[in-house]
Amino acid sequence: MEQNNKMQLMIEQAEKDLLHTYNRYQIVLDRGEGMYLYDINGKKYLDFMAGIAVFALGYGNKAYNDALKAQIDKILHTSNYFYNEPAIRAAARMKKASGMDRIFFTNSGAEAVEGALKAAMKHAFLKDGHRGHQVIAMENSFHGRTYGALSVTGNSHYREPFGQMPCDVQFARLNDLESVKVLITEETCAVIVEPVQGEGGLLPASEEFLKGLRALCDEKGILLIFDEIQCGMGRTGSMFAWHRFGVRPDIMTCAKALGCGVPVGAFLLTEEVGQSSLVAGDHGTTYGGNPLACAAVNAVLDQYEALDLVNHVRETAPYLTSTLDGLAAEFPCIKERRGTGFMQGLVFDRPVGPIIADAMDKGLILINAGAEIIRFVPALITEKQHIDEMAEILRGAIARNS
User: Fold this and answer.
1) What is the pLDDT of residue 402?
2) Do 369 and 346 meet the contact criterion of CB atoms below 8 Å apart?
3) pLDDT of 175 above 60
4) Fewer CB atoms inside 10 Å of the end CB: C or N, the chain?
């Protein structure tokens, strides 16, 4: 009872001090180990949220932790007026892993999107000398909550309270190439798309659509931007989702699992766009690419290789898919399963909040994607036994709330 009172007192204190921009679960987390989290009372939770697709390595990876501790003992920050060895190494390795040519390290995914949009706008300005170019984004997309990222987020609910957005954006429909074509004007400078929509409902872009976008952008002289912040870093069974189809973007954003808990993002560009867009003074960041963040990137890439994580996802994800398909067949309230790899969703005919709360009470952490979709974005170290454990808890939660 005393411990429960302690947790409640901490939550009440937080609600007095923190700006209320999140409806948080009523749990104070304390530590993690592998696939599991523990609250301050010691209660154990199987985590199929992974910090919203962040903790690809799970919790307590010793090699990762040791690399960060070693960097802390050396230097945390220098500013971008100097070079630092972790950033130089991380840049070269991310180029190789992604197949892109230039990289700019940021502190978050939203900042990566901001930089990508600025690069596209500057590229267009250098071509025609005009400002105020248009961007085409997708309905139901999510790219972040800063003003620029918000402007290309295809859910009006997020944008409406904030009035005029900073750039002209039109919204097409995912997997509908004609809906893109009708929006293109002489002012269109870029199309931005998530190869798999996350917040928008775990909807994958089709190979036909992505290849059609690439051809259309090439024909019209428009840049193609892929937002791989959630679907990248191995989550779909390829290092980046576009690798499955060989549709290379002009600019790509990533974050989340890039740092596995340390705040770091990046936008990457082709050589052509990198050489004809942002120059000294156009863009910057105090913390982005600092030694600690880039030590994290290097440690993440080391562990991806050591654990063969991308192949592990490719081999294990079909079991997650079949397990979720089984639940969908078992319960009429589940309308469909969506997604690819370790980025899956179950679509219900009702709000999923009570199911998620019930599962959490029984020791399973899940997250929604909209009111009626449960999202599954577990650590990439997930094994079949974790999927079985998740399904058993979730099955009971659905049954109790059907």
Assistant:
1) 84
2) no
3) yes
4) N
123 to each of 138, 151, 273, 359, how far by Cα in Å?
Answer: 21, 19, 7, 48
Buried b / exposed e across 99-118, counting CB within 10 Å, b at 16+?
bbebbbbbbbbbbbbbbbbb
The Cα–Cα gap between 108 and 241 comes to 19
CB-based burial of residue 131 (10 Å sphere; 0-12 exposed, 13-18 middle, 19+ buried)?
Answer: exposed
Please name every residue paired with 193 in a beta bridge, in sequence order, or none if there are none: 226
Between CA 69 and CA 400 the distance in angstroms is 45
* Residue 3, pLDDT above cutoff 80: no
The predicted structure's pLDDT at residue 1: 52
Could you tell me which of 238, 257, 237 has the C-alpha nearest to residue 57? 257
Q: How far apart are CA 31 and CA 372, in angstroms?
A: 30
From residue 339, alpha-carbon distances to 16, 101, 342 in Å are 38, 29, 8
Mean pLDDT, the chain, integer: 95
Tens digits of residue pLDDT in 320-358: 999 999 999 999 999 999 999 999 999 999 999 999 999
Strand ranges across the sheet with 29-33: 29-33, 36-39, 44-47, 364-365
How far, in Å, CA of 397 to CA of 69, rounded?
40
| Mean pLDDT within 294-315 | 98
Q: Name every residue whose Cβ is closer than 8 Å to that of residue 373 and which is 6 or more positions away in sequence.
A: 201, 202, 338, 345, 346, 347, 348, 352
Whether 342 and 377 have beta carbons less than 8 Å apart is answered as yes
Please tell me the distance from the alpha carbon of residue 74 to that of residue 376, in angstroms, as a whole number.
37
In single-letter form, the type of residue at position 163 comes to G
Q: How far is CA 25 from CA 62, 339, 359, in A?
A: 28, 25, 12
Which of 384, 57, 49, 365 shows the shortest CA–CA distance to 233? Answer: 57
- Using CB atoms within 10 Å of the CB of residue 230, give its burial: 0 to 12 exposed, 13 to 18 middle, 19+ buried: buried
User: 216 pLDDT exceeds 80?
Assistant: yes
DSSP 8-state assignment for residue 206: P
Q: Are 64 and 299 in contact (CB under 8 A)?
A: yes
